[in-house]
Amino acid sequence: MGEIELKLDPPQEKQKLFFKAFARYISYGGARAGGKSWAMRTKMALLCAYYPGLQCLLLRRTFAELQENHVKPLLRMLKGVAKYNTQHKVFRFPNGSELKLGYCDREEDVLQYQGQAYDVIGMEEATLFTEYQFNCLRESLRSSGLVKVPFQPRMYLTMNPGGVGHAWVKRLFVDRNYREKERAEDYVFIPAQVYDNKIFMKNDPEYVSQLESLPEKRKRAMLYGDWDAFEGAYFEEFKLRPDPKACQEAGITPEEALATHKFTHVIKPFDIPHNWKIYRSFDWGYARPYSVEYFALSPDDTAFMIAEIYGWNGIPNEGARETNKEICERIVNFERTHPYLSGKKIRGVADPSCWTGHGGVSFADEAEKHSIWFEPGDNDRIPGWMQVRDRLWMDSNGRAKLYFFETCKAIIRCMPLMIYDKHHVEDLDSSLEDHALDSLRYFCQMHKIPPREHKKETIYMSDPLNQFTEERGGYFGG
């Protein structure tokens, strides 16, 4: 059998790094227009041409995206090289290699690939896939037994910040925060921005200008690949650390801001004054996590989350599967020994479903047996989220009405990952790990504050005639 010849445009420097990278999981991109899709389909085609018998799977989230981003370009790229079967959506190469194209529009769509073996799997826009889908696909990443030469199975991923999979992608490839039996050497991330794509910058400079003119937060994510700022974040007010720009404008260092509780919501623990009131909030869970949160309320109604119990098994959105009795015993022991809580009178609020026993003993009944007192929380979601936002909002001095001790790991991990629901646009996506947020919402609804004035900068998404800029003396500038 003769060699397969592919005629391709030369890759950019970052794309070369992607092509040469060797690990089990190789990711590329992190910002708009870094040449991700071209790099992905070209790498898959090169692998199929080079390794006889290779079995590859290339996925997008929806069929429409798959058709536009890969089927049509691959038909042009592989014309005269590989035959495309429209019914099965697979390119067949003369050396026996196959490149199958698929999509996972719904969570359960990924199950169609279970039981199959692929030497290579490509996930385009990986942050649009859930962690469940990623894990299911990893089960199919194994030797097909059809490759004619030795080959190590691997997965290629491209992505931008944001989306339902933001958390797991960020953890593995950006933060490099690994769990037991996960090996750092298995994960490679090659960041790429539009500035790395010289051909694109030359061919479409207007798009580059559009990215540069985006609102600050979206620009940080889409232009610079900032994984701490992404479009669609539900609690965009939340600051994990002091904002450098705000600190500079205020004439203080980030360290000074942290010490004085300015321009950040996550702070170092301090001794709670004896006259501050203590609250407990609770969101129940069994197969999913439960969350117990403790708050100290200052005389000026500023709330500090000072401690938490998070009932999970260490895997995001998986519960500890503890019985009501076990949860209550854990709460009692925690409050008896914690320096902020021991001997304190604590007022509690809980998920209203805790009073539903379904013919048995409810959680509220079990809690009462352990002398743990709760009152039913207000479960009106949208007003509750507005209360959370009102507390998170910072005034002109950089001060909020809600802070979190840095020891409260679960709420700090989960809050930045919340995104808007696709169908209920004012609500957050409840399919995410939102349990700590629900517990927080019950507390905020229990101790409401009046709406605080939010002053936001007016942003003009498109101003081709410079009508609104101060320099040109436009309608709103002169």
Task: Describe this protein's structure.
With 478 residues, the chain is α/β, with parallel strands linked by helices. The protein has two domains: 13-211, Rossmann fold (3-Layer(aba) Sandwich); 244-446, 2-Layer Sandwich (Nucleotidyltransferase, domain 5), CATH 3.30.420. 29% of the residues lie in helices and 16% in strands. It has helices spanning 13-20, 36-50, 63-77, 131-139, 166-174, 198-203, 205-212, 216-222, 244-250, 254-259, 324-337, 363-369, 381-392, 409-414, 435-446; strands at residues 25-29, 55-60, 83-85, 90-92, 98-103, 120-123, 154-159, 187-191, 266-267, 277-283, 290-297, 303-311, 346-350, 375-376, 402-405. The strands form two sheets. It has an eight-stranded mixed beta sheet, with helices on both faces. Strand 6, helix 4 and strand 7 form a beta-alpha-beta unit. It is globular and about 80 Å long. Residues 457-478 have low confidence and may be disordered.
